[in-house]
Amino acid sequence: MHSVILATAIRLLLPLMLLFSLFLLLRGHNEPGGGFVGGLVVAAAFALYTLAHGEKEGRRMLRVDPLRLVASGLLVALVSGLLPLLVGLPFLTALWSSVPAPVIGHAGTPLLFDLGVYLLVAGMSLLIIFTLMEE
Amino acid sequence: MEPVLAVVIGGLYAAGMYLMVRRSIVKMIFGLALLGNAANLLIFTVGRLTRGRPPHIPLDATLPSLPVADPVPQALILTAIVIGFGVQAFALVLIKRVYQTVGSDDQDVMVTENQGLATRGTGREGQGDEV
Amino acid sequence: MLFLPLLIPLATAIAGLLAWNRRKLQRLLGVCSSAALLIVGLMLLATVQQQGVISAQAGNWPAPFGITLVADLLSSLLIVATGLMGLCVTVYSLADTDTRQESLGYHPLLQVLLLGICGSFLTGDLFNLYVWFEVMLIASFVLLALGGQREQMEGAIKYVALNLIASALLLAGIGLLYGVTGTLNMAHLAIRLQSMPHTGTIPVIAALLFCAFSIKAAVFPFYFWLPASYHTPPIAVITIFSALLSKVGIYVLIRVFTLIFPQETLAGQPLILAAAGLTMLLGALGAVAQPELRRMLAFCVVSQIGYLLMGLGLFTALALSGSIFFMLHIMAAKSALFLTTGVVARLTGSSSLAELGGLYRRYPLLAALFLVPALSVAGIPPLSGFWGKLALIQAGLQSGQYLMVAVALGVSVLTLYYLTNAWIHIYWKPAPETAAKLQYLPPHRRHQLLAPTLLLALFSLVLGLLPEPLFRLCHSAAEQILNPSSYITAVLGTLP
């Protein structure tokens, strides 16, 4: 199945959707958004690309193995949970920086956790999508 | 609003159960999805359908200004939806694999042919693995 | 401390995912992590013994609002058992799983499964329990279907469908419970429900939860999925499933129906006892009828679940301690049976009783490794099963449940019959002429297969010869369960 319209549109849509997913990720700890939706948007972007160009091209476009994404996402989330242990607080306690950063507001370990979720969700969904689209 | 939702939830449960007793595996997965949605809607309904503000506490107060919406049921539903998403995605991959190996999505076909296999004996444990 | 049993398997699973194609590293990580889990479990048990129930709040959110982890004697005993089973099965699967299954991520998945199990044992929050159940389920789905044999698929579909129904019921029950009480923390629920009349919605919720957990635990009338799916996957996978997954269901039943719902809610005792008796009886009858060893053992798992439930139904300290003791015993003994079955299947390429025979002459150690746990499961003194059953039956006599006692004794006889019958068929009778030639196993592989089996069989034997220390521990665990105030104080700080 090859569609010229989809193939042309996705060239523009892919970067836009990736940017939008980052936007969702970065505002997630204060406002609607977050790692989960962000990850799903990434997955949707690559799924559209895969629909237009096939599963092999999709994998090539992603560059990394989706499993790697899953593993690194879990790792980042785990680290964000372990950081508070260094200052003697229980696992998963949120630590916030007191200085507001320009785009994201007060950063903290929840943002790191969200980043982990983002990678995990994107990786997991793409893993399933690629498996289902394999010929 | 509650009576309407109650009917909807009941309908979803009924439809889910009906689909689950069908022979086709695909319909069974649909049934499971409906069942999950019915449970989510149930949580939403028992969390009281009030039109309230977000439960933010103003800076100079110790209690939020009433009425507030209860955020917990929504958090529960969100979690349940995410989990349901994962499980259903896995189930889809599984039925695709089943379709590839069995060549049918009819549970009866799967079972009857399998009984044929069973009478032929299980000789597969020893194979498949050499040092 | 309380987070360690969760962090160890999680970290190992992540490391295993990162080292996806390096199988040697994955194996090494798997073994180390299970050993570490066992050690942490023992440390946890020692701490709980000294300090009583301990709790920790995830994210530093105070108790009824955040997610609490709690360890009392029961949960820490079960964490130790999880570590032991995890270690045995991981070592066994070094030799048992084939390359393809390992390259599909067998070891990381096993760790995720252990993570889910430890989480369910430790959590003090009902919704969190649901989440751990799902973690466990997804890992177990993939493990069941791993490798993609045709029969495996059929078993996996039944397992997936039934367990998803159970999850939907559980979710609905939790939702309704939150609607009625406004809390999900188990200790807080216990307090809230004490002051409420047990009419209207609450018995419905209790029934929903009972059904959901019974499906997970394979209790009558919900056990049909277990024999239908447990005979298909690799033997190491079934071993861990039968040792831990169904026991998680029983653990949760014990926890919920002692802490949250007092038994009157369900008009409980007759109902639970009837379910227990029928589970025992039908499981044993199913096992007698099976000509294939793995299916027989799957029915045997169901039948033994009945004994565990019987302790909950009788609801005295003696009965519950019998149940806990029996649970630990059955994990070891039943796993040893499954593992020897795996060795036999590997040697002969079959696990059908008619096709086997004469193995005693070639492998006397293997024969002993089947016979000892088999007699132990049947409850022959002085093996470990005897003491568990003795406590249960004594408790039954004390409460005047004579019918239940009769069923339990009758099922023991049936168990003895079908297990010794299997032993005679596999090891004692002369090999049938159609029997396949025995396959050769290289020595290091044989050690990897036999060492865990030997360990478990010895564990069962030692437990039988010296039951006193463990039984005392089980007894204090049971008293802790029956008197939930220490649990509630540990979670909420004060008893309101």
Write up what this structure looks like.
The complex is a heterotrimer of chains A (about 140), B (about 130) and C (about 500). Chain A is mainly alpha-helical and about 140 residues long. Chain A has five helices and two strands; from the N terminus they run H-H-H-H-E-E-H. Chain A starts with a helix and ends with a helix. The radius of gyration of chain B is 23 Å and the shape is elongated. Chain C is mostly helical and about 500 residues long. At the B-C interface, helix 2, helix 3 and helix 4 of B face helix 6, helix 7 and helix 14 of C.
Uncertain segments of chain B: 113-131
Q: Can you tell me the residue ranges of chain C where pLDDT is under 50 for at least 5 consecutive residues?
A: none
> Strand percentage of chain B, roughly?
under 5%
Largest beta-sheet details of chain B: none
Present the secondary structure layout.
The complex is a heterotrimer of chains A (135), B (131) and C (496).
Chain A (H helix, E strand, L loop, with lengths): L3 H24 L7 H19 L1 H8 L3 H21 L9 E6 L3 E4 H25 L2
Antiparallel strand pairs in A: 1-2
Chain B lengths: L1 H19 L4 H22 L24 H32 L4 H13 L12
Helix pairs in contact in B: 1-2, 2-3
Chain C lengths: L3 H15 L4 H29 L2 E4 L10 E4 L1 H24 L2 H5 L2 H17 L3 H20 L4 H32 L4 H9 L6 H17 L7 H5 L5 H26 L7 H22 L3 H22 L2 H32 L10 H4 L1 H15 L5 H16 L2 H27 L14 H23 L2 H15 L2 H8 L4
Antiparallel strand pairs in C: 1-2
Summary, kept brief:
The complex is a heterotrimer of chains A (135), B (131) and C (496). In chain A, 72% of the residues lie in helices and 7% in strands.
Which structural traits does this protein have?
heterotrimer; B: about 130 residues; mainly alpha; Helix Hairpins; 4 helices; elongated; disordered C terminus; C: about 500 residues; 21 helices; 2 strands; globular
